[in-house]
Amino acid sequence: MGKRVALVLAGCGVFDGSEIHEASAALVHLSRGGAEVKIFAPNIEQRDVVNHLKGSPAEEKRNVLVESARLARGNIQDLAELKATEFDAVIFPGGFGVAKNLCSWAVDGKNCTVNEHVNSTLQAFRSAKKPIGLCCISPVLAAKVFPGCEVTVGQDKNVDGRFPDAETASAIAELGCKHICKNVNESHVDKANKIVTTCAFMCKAPLHEIFDGIGTMVQEVLKLA
């Protein structure tokens, strides 16, 4: 029987929701791994809406659950309904929606607050000793909720211009967590906390390398489940 995995989305689109390629990559690797997946998102208003063609703010309001339903092909549930007892693992793709909608990192950095249902979901899986997978910017959720944990968002220096957000690693360290430097095609496993992270689009890399890196994260999560 395949592992039961919950996937938590933050909207639809890199600049104000979940990064679509990351969400899709996670779903492909979970499918290949024989996992049974259910998708969730919080039923809240987005912090903002971005015109992805122009890269500028749009004067409209959108709902995170409704927008996430685009990625889930309509098969999605309110995050408030997620019960850790019904799953073997949980995975959070990245995208600015994580830093805007699932928490306030985009505005407040290490002083951010985490959405109550995101927080309770993370706490429930950790308490049950079930693995948590995070990629791109989403490892900051673990860093904020679980002081002392180990995560990666890639490198802590902007190596060859490939890691323009390398300062995130410093902010994670300031939260009392350990940042582990990894390449885009690798993931890090915090065995003590069963947290698996990979940098994905925090690195400027070809799409197939990001896809492969997310694959290593998914594989490690399924091993731990």
From TrEMBL:
PANTHER family: ES1 PROTEIN HOMOLOG, MITOCHONDRIAL, GLUTAMINE AMIDOTRANSFERASE LIKE CLASS 1 DOMAIN CONTAINING 3A-LIKE1-RELATED. It comes from Leptocoma aspasia. This is GAL3A protein. InterPro entries: Class_I_gatase-like. It comes from the Eukaryota.
